[in-house]
């Protein structure tokens, strides 16, 4: 594998970390040889000076290196002066970032005060009306001239005040102009930002940081990879801000953030990160630190062993496989529970993996997060298992009673004649697959590969195995199994999301499993696996919530409102509900959700079906009932 710098092109590459230029934000550098910086955003009104200062201090004490504050209008932008002074008087000189949408004049005022101003190319010079326009090359260039006219004054102020600028594209707020020309695509996201970058570059302003945020991690990683590719083509090297926007709350928000941000850091992309949770901003910092520390540790041999996705990095393509029973083909990835180290297995143990036995009725109750297979090793099971659950035994034990399905070593698979006529699971621990093994696999409609590795560099090892398998034309399904040593629950959640989620986001893997050397609760491991599948949109087992992390623009209490909506709708498996505090990304993000709940004023809510607004300015007291009615009217409601 070469270390030569080459463009992110066909997905099978060796590359160094994408080295960006240094951009100073106040007293800290971003990009270049600087460490990857952690940032977050305040959630209360910018006009609440004392509250903003107090919250910023809590964020800084938690480890936040840049504090972002919304500036929706000129009045609030000017109040950033008081906030900055109060922080300095309290002994804090952490760089401040103003977040501006829709109002170029607010960005200009903020740029005189703060260290960096963030603008959104989707709404800085354009209005979003969800209309399609036909542009000739001449009329499109005329539209770009309008961008220049709006952007030049801000650039001049940034130059005069040594203020940096983040040009931050959001998938949910692409302009009608971009949508008309490029569609709702990662390419559209990239071009939306680069149009602004080219204007800045043309007049010698290069204090730029770029971001490509989306609530869907698949879209997010494709956009960032394409951004790097396009920058290299145009000889650009601006620092990159990573984030999964509207990731949500709790476990779901952490998992989506880890797989999106973590996979790109493992690709060598990213100079500053923000984890967006629908929680107090200080809660985001420990999650960001876990992601950073883990990816840093895993990249020890980055330049020697790195391999990118073996598939197209700019397009999600599920690896084509020949189905074996319910594994591979068009089936969603399976979940395999590990019971190998369980000394004795009884019926009640299966409750942890989604199966509850009712003795009075002599039947099993099966949950939406019931695993598909259980690996029991040499254990014996002396009770009738649920019909939907496959049991996997070590080969020698399976050969004694021929129950369930065998797990074979590579050597056993090649040497033994006695095997299952339905499903044989072949354990693979390295990427060196001899030709005679490849030939047997290709001709065997019963073989599924169980690829095992530990987590240290495991993602790169697994990518290499997938690369070899794809190159040699092997279409057998692959179950990913990663083992972790001495990890806590919050660590496993983040580490597993990075290692397994990164592969799933690239269309790799037909099943997932985790092995732990300590006795964690199996229900916890099972839940994490299903949540990783949900976050990567590989397998849907529950309602998905696309909720923003709140800021000073928010029109209602996002945490409480999200909890209330979740309480009433969490049983609607497969439905995506967007919960947005304001209109900045609300209408756009609704295109990725089935239903939307968007704050449009104080105590006023508008409801969406996809990107179409169906009810405007409902009183917030009635909004949840109206949302439920909307879901029912469209035939997507079901009772618990």
SSE layout:
Blueprint: E1 23-25, E2 28-30, E3 37-41, H1 49-62, E4 66-70, H2 74-89, E5 96-100, H3 104-111, E6 116-119, H4 137-161, E7 164-170, H5 176-182, H6 186-202, E8 208-213, H7 217-233, E9 240-242, H8 250-266, E10 272-273, H9 284-298, H10 302-305, E11 334-338, E12 355-358, E13 363-366, E14 373-377, E15 390-394, H11 395-401, E16 405-408, H12 410-415, E17 424-428, H13 435-442, E18 447-454, H14 458-471, E19 478-484, H15 489-505, E20 511-516, H16 522-535, E21 544-547, H17 558-569, E22 576-580, H18 586-589, E23 595-601, E24 604-609, E25 612-619, H19 620-633
Parallel strand pairs: 3-4, 3-10, 4-5, 5-6, 6-7, 7-8, 8-9, 9-10, 11-14, 11-20, 14-15, 15-16, 16-17, 17-18, 18-19, 19-20, 21-22, 22-23
Antiparallel strand pairs: 1-2, 12-13, 23-24, 24-25
Structure description:
With 640 residues, this protein is an alpha/beta fold. It is 37% helix and 20% strand. It contains 19 helices and 25 strands. It has an 8-stranded parallel barrel with strand order 3-4-5-6-7-8-9-10, surrounded by 7 helices. An 8-stranded parallel β-barrel has the order 11-14-15-16-17-18-19-20, surrounded by 4 helices. Strand 6, helix 4 and strand 7 form a beta-alpha-beta unit. It is globular. The N terminus is likely disordered.
């Amino acid at each position: 594998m070469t270390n030569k710098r080459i463009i992110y092109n066909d997905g099978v590459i060796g590359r160094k970390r994408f080295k960006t230029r240094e951009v100073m934000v106040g007293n800290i550098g971003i990009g270049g040889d600087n460490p990857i910086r952690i940032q977050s955003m305040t959630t209360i009104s910018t006009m609440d000076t004392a509250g903003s200062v107090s919250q910023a201090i809590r964020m800084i004490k938690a480890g936040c290196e840049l504090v972002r504050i919304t500036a929706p209008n000129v009045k609030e932008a000017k109040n950033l002066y008081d906030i900055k002074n109060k922080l300095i008087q309290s002994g804090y000189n952490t760089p401040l970032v103003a977040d501006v949408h829709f109002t170029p004049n607010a960005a200009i005022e903020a740029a005189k005060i703060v260290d960096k101003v963030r603008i959104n190319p989707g709404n800085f010079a354009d209005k979003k009306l969800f209309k399609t326009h036909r542009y000739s090359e001449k009329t499109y260039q005329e539209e770009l001239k309008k961008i220049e006219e709006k952007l030049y004054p801000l650039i001049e102020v940034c130059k005069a005040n040594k203020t940096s600028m983040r040009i931050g594209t959001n998938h949910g707020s692409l302009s009608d102009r971009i949508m008309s020309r490029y569609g709702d695509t990662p390419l559209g996201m990239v071009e939306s930002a680069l149009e602004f970058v080219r204007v800045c570059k043309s007049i010698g302003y290069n204090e730029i940081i770029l971001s490509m945020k989306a609530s869907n991690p698949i879209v997010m990683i494709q956009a960032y990879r394409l951004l790097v590719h396009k920058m290299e083509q145009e000889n650009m090297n601006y620092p990159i801000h990573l984030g999964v926007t509207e990731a949500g709350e709790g476990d779901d928000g952490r998992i989506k953030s880890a797989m999106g941000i973590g996979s790109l850091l493992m690709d060598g992309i990213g100079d500053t990160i923000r984890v967006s949770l629908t929680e107090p901003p200080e809660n985001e910092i420990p999650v960001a630190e876990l992601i950073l520390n883990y990816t840093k540790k895993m990249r020890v041999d980055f330049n020697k062993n790195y391999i990118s996705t073996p598939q197209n990095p700019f397009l999600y393509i599920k690896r084509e496989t020949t189905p074996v029973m319910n594994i591979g083909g068009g089936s969603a990835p399976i979940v395999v529970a590990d019971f190998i180290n369980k000394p004795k297995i009884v019926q009640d143990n299966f409750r942890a993996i989604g199966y509850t036995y009712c003795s009075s009725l002599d039947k099993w109750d099966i949950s939406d997060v019931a695993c598909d297979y259980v690996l029991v090793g040499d254990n014996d099971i002396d009770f009738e298992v649920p019909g939907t659950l496959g049991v996997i035994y070590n080969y020698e034990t399976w050969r004694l009673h021929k129950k369930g399905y065998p797990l074979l070593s590579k050597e056993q698979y090649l040497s033994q004649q006695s095997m299952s006529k339905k499903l044989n699971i072949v354990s693979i621990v390295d990427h060196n697959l001899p030709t005679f093994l490849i030939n047997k696999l290709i001709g065997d409609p019963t073989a599924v590969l169980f690829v095992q590795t530990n987590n240290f560099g495991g993602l790169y090892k697994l990518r290499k195995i997938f690369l070899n398998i794809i190159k040699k034309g092997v279409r057998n399904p692959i179950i990913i199994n990663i083992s972790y040593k001495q990890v806590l629950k919050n660590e496993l959640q983040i580490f597993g999301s990075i290692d397994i989620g990164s592969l799933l986001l690239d269309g790799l893997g037909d099943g997932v499993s985790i092995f732990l050397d300590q006795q964690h609760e199996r229900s916890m491991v099972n839940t994490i696996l299903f949540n990783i599948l949900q976050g990567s949109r590989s397998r849907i087992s529950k309602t998905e919530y696309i909720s923003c992390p709140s800021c000073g623009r928010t029109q209602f209490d996002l945490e409480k409102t999200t909890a209330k909506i979740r309480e009433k709708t969490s049983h609607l498996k497969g439905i995506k509900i967007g919960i947005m505090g304001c209109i900045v990304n609300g209408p756009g993000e609704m295109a990725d959700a089935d239903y939307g709940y968007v704050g449009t004023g104080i105590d006023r809510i508008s409801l969406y079906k996809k990107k179409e607004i169906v009810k405007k300015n409902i009183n917030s007291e009635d909004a949840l009932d109206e949302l439920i009615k909307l879901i029912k009217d469209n035939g997507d409601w079901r009772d618990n």
